[in-house]
Amino acid sequence: MIHIKSKQEIEQIKTACHVVGKILRRLKEYLHPGITTEELDQQAQRLLVQLGAVSAFKGYKGYPANICTSVNEQVVHGIPGKRQLQKGDLASIDVGAKLNGFFGDAAWTFPVGEVSPQALKLLAVAEQALRIGIDQAKPGNHLSDISYAIQTYVESQGFSVVRKFVGHGIGLEMHEDPEIPNFGFPGRGPQLQAGMTLAIEPMVNQGSGDVEILDDQWTAVTKDRRLSAHFEHTICISDTQPEVLTAWE
Ligand code: MF3
Ligand code: CO
Question: What CATH number was assigned to the domain covering residues 7-244?
């Protein structure tokens, strides 16, 4: 069942989303060669506390950290650790916050120092895929119009979407109905309505869309070990333009 949020609920979800946005903005400043992903996690923890929120991820199905840090061939759910970022890396930071019982979730992939032209193209396409998906989030459209728009754009640029993970409803829980695949035929699934809050999150691979999970049981990597990028926003559908609640730039 898809929960349609009240005005009051949307206001609360917005405050959680603002925390997420602020943390992404702050973490971006730390993304220099030499920093470990664990240090990023510690900064995230400090900022969450400062903003009166808690990580939506820590403890979720046993997830051990505050944020996810997925570097290069890592697609999503990378666990922060001793790995030092290097010039040329692509670092995805995924932040989820819980504030007063409400949730926000967003992710962004950043270049560390100078990266290859192919890596830059992957970032541009994955970010644009998110925007194209968000553009479809309007009343009257069907859920899979988001999916279809993302997939067709990504494939038209010579990249692949990951099918193993999906976007999701969010708000009173981190994961609510509906699931939002980044692929599919248009015109399927529930009709979208004002008051739906959704986390749209394309994962885009340079090579094949196939992924595997490392022995830590969390980190998803590309099967071919080529690069991947992940962009996510929590949005709210309205009668006019979708509102991006986790905007941070
Ligand atoms: N943004 C991811 C998601 O929506 C992050 C989940 S990490 C987890 O599923 F540890 F909480 F699972
Ligand atoms: Co999410």
Answer: 3.90.230.10
